[in-house]
Design a protein that fits this description.
The complex is a heterodimer of chains A (892) and B (109). With 892 residues, chain A is an alpha+beta fold. In chain A, 53% of the residues lie in helices and 14% in strands. Chain A has 27 helices and 25 strands. In chain A, the strands form three sheets. In chain A, strands 1, 2, 3, 4, 5, 6, 7, 8, 9, 10, 11, 12 and 13 form a 13-stranded mixed sheet that branches. In chain A, strands 16, 17, 18, 19, 20, 21, 22 and 23 form an eight-stranded mixed sheet that branches. A four-stranded antiparallel sheet of chain A has the order 15-24-14-25. In chain A, helix 5 crosses helix 13 and helix 25 runs antiparallel to helix 26. Chain B is an alpha+beta fold. Chain B is 57% helix and 15% strand. Chain B has a three-stranded antiparallel sheet. In chain B, helix 1 packs across helix 4. The radius of gyration of chain B is 15 Å and the shape is globular. The chains are: A alpha+beta (892), B alpha+beta (109). The interface between A and B is medium-sized, with 31 and 22 residues.
């Protein structure tokens, strides 16, 4: 009942306002009339009676306002009224409104875009329940983390106390054949323990049990949800079906949900199929190849430190047992979140900070515009105050105006943000994980709203406080004449302060951008160690069913290499297990003959190992410093050879006598001593920013192998062409490959140039993003400085006129105006450089080849920024110099 | 003549309801009646009276309607509704309680 009454009243307040107001006016009229009658009856003259009555009533408009403010829903009504008024205000100044909304849209949009990437990469939960207790397991040695060998994995798997489950996996494509065209599917080979550790719940069927993981048992496979959908239309009977993968019939036992990925697999396509790892636990690979990724789930109550301790102890046991591992060998656990997004975090957070600065600069600009406008509205406000508007009411109305502005900017910003996020994703470096998936999460909307509201508060507060401070009488007297300068002085001071802040923010951004761009330039200038112009590359994996043993794979590659090299335009072609800057590379402990106490070879060198076919150095144009490259006579069973890198030679044969030395790998299979026949120039194998590590090249024909060997069955082809445009021979290479084996899918077909470009993609992304933000800030600052100078000149036109009339030269006037800009700019730059000096430390981890306090950047960028800003102040200064003193003196 | 004073804060609503519980009155009538009862101690200014009246009307405690005054003037008259009567009871009770509490404080030794 009460509620109903209130709602009825509310609706009347909102929709029957005219009726209510007319009623009120009539009521007050009759009240006044009766009051007059009363006075007349008391014997006053009609004139006196009317005067006293009006005095007693005390201002009809004030009474009306009082009534309106106490109505039910008065607040809502005021807001609606204010919003309407705000729109009228903006419609009256379309230029101002457009500039303001556009500025805000860009500022809020850029922030929303960056945040949407941040939220996707960093904030989204990983697809593992309770991911706090999931860790990845790594070997460690001096130079960082290392994957696990089969032996090591089996040792760690036995650790029962710290881990609920520990498993291993490796990424590897599988070829689906049988139905329709053969398709190469991204896949994973995972042990049952790995899936248990990650806690994946199948949508249908089951995941692997321990029995699936044994070699020689029934072959099973898990499908991804998208694969299930694409190939089998989500039919539930898919469980139990048999599909042919890599030539083997496998039974589908379950379906894992879309979005399930394994640590290390968050870039590129998600796996379509998951096969059991199928280790031969009784006879693990003893070559000590580190190719397995480890993952584990901690037992409840076990700390990360305890788990690390247990792993280190297990690693020590292995070390003791084998006696061949370097002393620094150990093992550790990394929280899975750190493992997946740790490397991306710093860069993204810095980007978010940078774009936040851009929004701040935008806010300052708009606050400045609003302040300028508020000067012209002092009179309006004064009129309102004298008509009975309270200060709170005025502030509320001004805040509504800026709120409407901010909301319009925010709405446009959301659109800009969605598009911007798409652009960011499109230009993002290939190494940035977890970019796929939903684009407009609630978090992004929330952030956009947050940015909008904070923006509204920042830009609204200053003008509101300033205007509502005005004393009505003084304002009414002064505003019309242009003579009153009391509060105007304070306003000008505020505006100068804001511009100074703006310049300093822009300086920080520009210096950051300068550092990143310079770092990118340095990185681009790094010689990768090979010639990337005119090289085509592609990846081939031979299924073990068609190529069951080593001779079969060798025969295939031999024939393919001959056929491809016969193509027109091809100079040389070769194969490698590790494509520089693209595929990973493993390291392997070796002994050097004649060194160490027992002459069996000293422990120590752990070079990267790369298996290549004879013309690899020619195809990549990696110069040989000494000795010879591999030839076709380096065959299995013959004279065992190796080519080592300069870095390897320098470190272990400082006397320069590496050529002819003998080395042996720490493995039970390859027990032969190899002779170093050549020394190749250093190649950046994993990244351009890291110094080349010692490396050893082994001839493909002499690599020790087991049957069903993934190391040997997967090769990257490098094709050196006559032409600079390597992509031209792609069709030829395709058809030759198809002629040798029509069922073989080709992967990663691209030019080496694209590979090296991708290697600097992260730095380019950061440089471009920072550069764009710095540019936005610069434009805003230019607009801001220009606007303030124009304003200051306008405010002092009279003074300038007097100066000219008294004989000041145009030059003098110009420099007098420019001095304002110079002071603001110099102060802003000083603060900005100091801020950048302190903050650039954060960038240090992203930089290559320049220090975070690179003197060149810290000098050149502020100077360029200062010059640009001064030019924007020079235009109004020049205009001031042309002021006509007569006009100026009549000004206002 | 006793000094004039403003009405105790927060009691205007109650006083209006009480005044209207005696008879139907227009705005000027209400303020004159209050002055009369308090012998000129309380004066209600239009700036407070009208906002209070309209608020009470919107709450449904009083109902306004146009009619003719004693001098045949067109005027808006207010009367207490059933809900208003209940409300007056509540307000009186609250007031009595507050008064008793204040007395206790003032008489405390």
């Amino acid at each position: 009942m009460r509620i109903q009454t209130r709602i009825r009243s509310l609706l009347r307040t909102l929709f029957r306002k005219e009726t209510l107001d007319a009623d009120l006016a009539e009521e007050l009229d009759s009240y006044l009339a009766m009051l007059v009658e009363e006075k007349l009856r008391a014997g006053m003259t009609p004139h006196e009676a009317r005067r006293r009555a009006r005095l007693e009533l005390g201002g009809v408009e004030q009474v009306k306002t009082g009534v309106r403010e106490r109505r039910v829903g008065a607040l809502i009504e005021t807001i609606i009224q204010d919003v309407r008024f705000a729109f009228r205000q903006f419609a009256r100044n379309p230029g101002f409104s457009a500039v303001a909304v556009l500025t805000l849209a860009l500022g809020i949009g850029a922030n929303t875009a960056v945040f949407s990437v941040v939220s996707r990469v960093l904030l989204r939960p990983l697809p593992y329940p309770d991911d706090e207790s999931v860790v990845t397991v790594w070997n460690t040695h001096v130079e960082g983390q290392l994957a696990l060998s089969e032996n090591e994995f089996l040792e760690y798997e036995g650790l029962d106390a710290p881990f609920e489950s520990l498993g291993a996996y490796r990424f590897g494509p599988l070829t689906l054949s049988g139905e329709g065209e053969a398709e190469r599917l991204p896949g994973v080979y995972a042990s049952a323990g790995a899936l248990r550790a990650l806690g994946v719940t199948p949508l249908a069927g089951r995941v692997f049990g321990p029995d699936d993981d044994l070699p020689g048992t029934a072959l099973v496979i898990l499908l991804s949800e998208p694969m299930w959908e694409r190939r089998f239309g989500r039919e539930p009977e898919v469980v139990g079906r048999i599909i042919t993968l890599n030539g083997l019939a496998r039974t589908v036992v379950g379906v894992v949900p879309a979005g399930f990925r394994l640590p290390g697999g968050f870039t590129g396509p998600a796996p379509d199929v998951i096969a059991p790892l199928g280790l031969d636990r009784a006879a693990p690979d003893t070559r000590n190849i580190h190719y397995l990724r480890g993952v584990a789930r901690l037992r409840r109550g076990v700390t990360l430190g305890q788990a690390r301790g247990a792993l280190a102890a297990a690693a020590a046991r292995i070390s003791e047992r084998l006696g061949t591992l370097p002393e620094t060998f150990s093992a550790t656990a990394i929280p899975v979140r750190e493992d997946v997004v740790g490397s991306a975090r710093t860069g993204l957070m810095i980007l978010l900070g940078a774009v936040g600065l851009v929004l701040l600069v935008a806010c300052v600009n708009i606050a400045n515009l609003l302040l300028a406008r508020s000067d012209t509205r002092i009179r309006e406000m004064a009129v309102r105050v004298s008509l009975g508007a309270g200060r709170g009411r005025l502030i509320r109305q001004l805040c509504t105006e800026t709120g409407v502005l901010a909301l319009a900017g925010g709405a446009a910003g959301l659109a800009v943000g969605v598009l911007g996020a798409r652009a960011l994703v499109a230009m993002s470096p290939p190494g940035l994980p977890r970019l796929d998936g939903v684009s407009a999460e609630p978090a992004v909307f929330g952030f956009c709203l947050f940015a909008t509201v904070s923006t509204g508060l920042i830009i609204g507060l200053l003008p509101a406080l300033r205007l509502s401070r005005e004393e009505p009488v003084g304002a009414l007297k002064g505003a019309g004449t242009g003579m009153r300068r009391g509060t105007g002085q304070a306003g000008a001071q505020t505006r100068r302060g804001l511009v100074t802040a703006q310049v300093s923010l822009a300086a920080m951004l520009s210096i950051g951008a300068g550092l990143l761009v310079r770092s990118f330039g340095e990185l681009r200038a790094v010689d990768p160690g090979f010639d990337d112009v005119g090289v085509l590359t592609l990846q081939l994996s031979l299924p073990s069913t068609s190529y069951p043993d080593h001779p079969a794979t060798r025969a295939f590659f031999d024939r393919l290499l001959v056929d491809v090299s016969a193509l027109p335009g091809v100079d040389a072609v070769a194969g490698t297990t590790s494509l520089p800057l693209a595929s990973g590379v493993g390291d392997w402990g070796v002994r050097i003959r004649g060194r160490g106490p027992d002459g069996l070879g000293e422990q120590g060198p752990v070079p990267d190992w790369i298996v290549v076919t004879p013309r690899y150095f020619e195809a990549m144009r990696i110069p040989l410093v000494e000795g010879r490259p591999f030839t076709r006579s380096d065959v299995a069973g013959g004279f065992q050879t190796a080519v080592i890198s300069e870095e390897f030679a320098r470190r272990h044969w400082p006397e320069g006598d590496a050529l002819g030395a003998q080395i042996r790998m720490s493995t039970n299979i390859d027990t032969l001593w190899r002779t170093v026949v050549g020394i190749a120039a250093d190649v950046h194998q994993t990244s351009l920013s890291d110094a080349p590590r010692p490396a050893m090249y082994l001839p493909h024909a002499q690599f020790p192998s087991t049957t069903e060997d993934w190391v040997m069955s997967q090769l990257n082809l490098v094709v050196r062409t006559h032409r600079a445009e390597a992509a031209g021979v792609a069709a030829g290479v395709r058809s030759v490959t198809g002629a040798v084996d029509p069922n073989l899918p080709i992967a990663n077909l691209r030019t080496m140039r694209e590979v090296t470009r991708d290697a600097t993609a992260t730095q380019r992304f950061q440089g471009v993003a920072f550069g764009v933000f710095a540019l936005m800030a610069l434009v805003l600052v230019v607009v801001g400085v220009y606007g303030v100078t124009v304003y200051l000149v306008a405010r002092r036109t009279r003074e300038i006129g007097i100066r000219i009339a008294l004989g000041a030269s145009p030059r003098g006037v110009r420099s007098f105006v420019l001095r304002e800009g110079l002071i603001m700019t110099a102060l802003g730059l000083a603060i900005g450089v100091a801020g950048a000096w302190m903050l650039s430390r954060l960038l240090a981890g992203l930089l290559y080849g320049v220090t975070a306090r690179d003197p060149l950047t810290f000098v050149v960028v502020p100077l360029a920024l200062g010059a640009t800003v001064l030019i924007s102040a020079a235009i109004p200064a020049a205009r001031a110099a042309r002021v006509d003193p007569l006009v100026a003196l009549r000004h206002d | 003549m006793p000094g004039r004073s403003d009405i105790v804060r927060g009691t205007l609503d109650m006083l209006i309801l009480k005044t209207l519980s005696l008879q139907r009155l227009h705005g000027l009538g209400i303020s004159r009646r209050m002055e009369q009862i308090t012998e000129g101690t309380f004066q209600v200014k239009p700036g407070s009276l009208f906002p209070a009246l309209h608020r009470l009307e919107q709450e449904g405690w009083i109902a306004g309607s146009w009619g003719e005054s004693d001098n045949n003037r067109h005027a808006k008259f207010y009367e207490l509704t059933a809900a208003g009567r209940r409300r007056l009871g509540e307000e009186k009770q609250n007031w009595a309680q507050a008064l008793a509490a204040i007395d206790k404080i003032l008489e405390a030794t």
